[in-house]
Design a protein that fits this description.
The longest helix is centred in the C-terminal third of the chain and has 27 residues. A hairpin with a 2-residue loop joins strand 2 and strand 3. The protein has a four-stranded antiparallel sheet. The N and C termini lie far apart (37 Å). With 171 residues, the chain is an alpha+beta fold. Helix 4 runs parallel beside helix 6 and helix 5 packs across helix 6.
Length: 171
């Protein structure tokens, strides 16, 4: 089974044995790395979300310098525009994926350059990372809107990991 339109992730559910398809032990892989291997490899590291995002975009894990730059970039681009938070609050949905889809679509309206003149790969990667940085907070805000009518919508401190920011928002 191929997840998505590319080979960024895959799930192997069957194998060919003597020309027949047989069930195979499930293996979830991102860019050729099994999820089990990634968990083992990253288990003693901070900023795992950021490292996996880098892997998905580039095909490899970041070195320390790249990871530091990525952490700073994602922290800087993490905030969700107030008008999008308002839409999330005014349209609570127990379907978090639906709320995420709506918010991501609305982010286009908040982009200073929504339709760049060129398809420069560096610009596209930067836009992708800026979007990825916002996703955990959008999910947290959508959860709060659906589950806690009196929730406070907070913005995490700069410099914390994406995981820390997500849990801080759920407070």
């Amino acid at each position: 089974v191929l997840a998505g339109l590319t080979r960024l992730s895959s799930v192997t559910g069957t194998k060919k044995v003597a020309g027949n398809s047989e069930p195979a032990p499930g293996v979830l892989a991102y860019r050729g790395h099994s999820l089990a291997d990634l968990v083992h490899l990253l288990s003693n590291q901070d900023h795992q979300f950021e490292s996996v995002a880098f892997l998905l975009l580039t095909g490899r894990l970041p070195n320390e310098s790249e990871k530091d730059d990525l952490i700073k970039f994602m922290s800087h681009h993490r905030s969700v525009p107030a008008r999008i938070i308002t839409v999330i609050q005014q349209n609570p949905s127990s379907d978090i994926m639906n709320a995420l889809q709506t918010a991501v679509s609305l982010l286009h309206t908040a982009d200073d350059d929504p339709m760049p003149a060129t398809l420069d790969i560096a610009n596209l990667c930067e836009k992708s990372l800026a979007l990825i940085a916002k996703l955990p907070l959008i999910i947290a805000y959508a959860y709060l809107a659906a589950q806690k009518s009196t929730a406070r919508y907070v913005t995490p401190e700069p410099g914390v990991s994406t995981a820390e920011a997500f849990f801080y928002c759920l407070h």
